[in-house]
Amino acid sequence: MNLRLSSIIGLAGCKTIMALAAGALMLCVASVAASSDAAVKESPQTTAQNGGDSKLIVYYFHTTDRCYSCNLIEKFTKETLVSYFQKEIADGLIDVQIVNVERPENNHFIKDYKLYTKSVIVSDVVKGNEIHWKNLTRVWELIRKESSFRDYVSREVRLCLEDHKG
Known about the structure:
The protein is α/β, with parallel strands linked by helices and about 170 residues long. It contains six helices and five strands; from the N terminus they run H-E-H-E-H-H-E-H-E-E-H. It has helices at about 5-35, 45-50, 70-85, 85-90, 110, 145-165, and strands at about 40, 55-60, 95-100, 120-125, 130-135.
């Protein structure tokens, strides 16, 4: 016997079930996104500006208007950092910041880091002073190779972290 769900509960019941299922899926996706964003700050302030302690700051610098690739760089960078460096982020050894350089208070970063496009920068801050920084320029080259992108970012951050702990 071949019964369709709509013949058992009616068309209105099917629409209700589908709406509930879609809502549940959206909640799951939002929950996963929120958990990876919890460790990432949108604030432009750094430890160097605040006179704080020693840490690595991993920035993603962007403008207001962003293309698909720009959004992917941010997404892959945040996910990589949260995945590979969750403990270091929780311990305050790594600070992740997403910064819009078109905001007036963030415009100085363009000169500070010689930015010419959306960029991932790793900044080594010791006793409140930036002592070294590196632009991870290969993120653009690797944007279509997610696994290579993640390997590159995690390797570069790990190397900077080892130098930082030095």
